[in-house]
Amino acid sequence: MDGRHWMLLELAMISGVSFLKFKENHWFIFEEYPGICRLAIKSEDGRELRSFRFKDEDESQEVRAVERRVLLETLASRLPPDAISFSSKLANIERSENGETLLELEDGIRISAKILIACDGIRSPVAKLMGFPEPNYVGHCAFRGLAYFPEGQPFEPKVNYIYGKGVRAGYVPVSETKVYWFICYNSSSPGPKITDPSILRQQAEQLVRNWPTELINLINLTPDDTIIRTSLVDRWLWPSISPPASTGSIVLVGDAWHPMTPNLGQGACCALEDSIVLTKKLAEAIKSKRTSVEDAFKAYGSERWPRIFPLTVRAYLVGALLQWDNPVICAVRDNIVVPKLVRLGPVLEHTNFEFDPL
Ligand SMILES: Cc1cc2nc3c(=O)[nH]c(=O)nc-3n(C[C@H](O)[C@H](O)[C@H](O)COP(=O)(O)OP(=O)(O)OC[C@H]3O[C@@H](n4cnc5c(N)ncnc54)[C@H](O)[C@@H]3O)c2cc1C
């Protein structure tokens, strides 16, 4: 690209879903994916506590649910052919004396990089090299799956949340044939890694066995390879204490820098926003020739931190509130807070991110 040599290393395009919320921010690339019009909240006994229409709050509000595989394929389709080197697992990383970064891949290939943009997720070895601590487990885990309806799924374009005691769930259609669902539950520890889909399915069903039957149906219609369990983690980027987003010519993007809990549905959205801001800063540096790449990385970190840090804290607090298991507090939530006090505006406000088209 542009006479420079870039390599995009990727371990795998794993599945999952991203629930993207946009407001007037030119994400034309996602326009073909299903728009979600409403949000409904139910209690575990199936009572509808509240329902909102997004456009009633703000005509410009857009919500889209995009399957992770589709999102990655869409983004990858805009790159030159062969730009992504798949199955390239980073095994080791070191700083060399000439200021470059030495990357060693699992298959033995060694690469010396002048610039490294690391978007390698929550367990990023690059973040570790830069002095970031491991993300913190926040006391909740989540099951996720993609139910498949070969004859077409029957749901409205609506996000459905169901609140229980210490357990909450949700589902949303992501295409004509697929429906994403999640169940979030309290657990004092992340527990052992389980990959057997029949055990995962059984555990997920157990959590919602007396809930509205649509959830159990969705779990039953979920192919084995799309059901996963994840422990929820985050990392708070304390000012002056946490390392900055970049060190010299290495920069972090997305979860590698700022893992946040999914309670606001913003992790992937923020990773996309990061990439836009970073692209702009780099383009300005390359065009003007007065700013170095290192300064462009620093400017990116300074611009993004005020958005990322409060969102990470807010996502944590929202999770702590929604995962309450005290029956009295849950009764107040179901009978007063959700039906009478919750407003859609503050729920969507964090999704506002506006930028000029690139
Ligand atoms: C239960 C749950 C629900 C969520 N819901 C939402 C939501 O509704 N909306 C939303 O916006 N976000 C949501 N998120 C968050 C979202 O999934 C993440 O924030 C997002 O995936 C971060 O993107 P990323 O590209 O930074 O990292 P990742 O998506 O984790 O991608 C990292 C990539 O790096 C690659 N990689 C990792 N290690 C290596 C290595 N050693 N060598 C080479 N490659 C490597 C991996 O293959 C992977 O493709 C949710 C998360 C969870 C857990």
Automatic annotation (TrEMBL):
This is Monooxygenase 2 isoform X2. One of its GO terms (molecular function) is monooxygenase activity. It comes from the Eukaryota. Residues 76-307 form the FAD-binding domain. PANTHER family: FAD/NAD(P)-BINDING OXIDOREDUCTASE FAMILY PROTEIN, FAD_NAD(P)-BINDING OXIDOREDUCTASE FAMILY PROTEIN. Gene3D superfamilies: FAD/NAD(P)-binding domain. The keyword Transferase does not apply. Pfam families: FAD_binding_3 (PF01494). The gene is LOC107023874. It comes from Solanum pennellii. Keywords: Monooxygenase, Oxidoreductase. InterPro entries: FAD-bd, FAD/NAD-bd_sf, MOase.
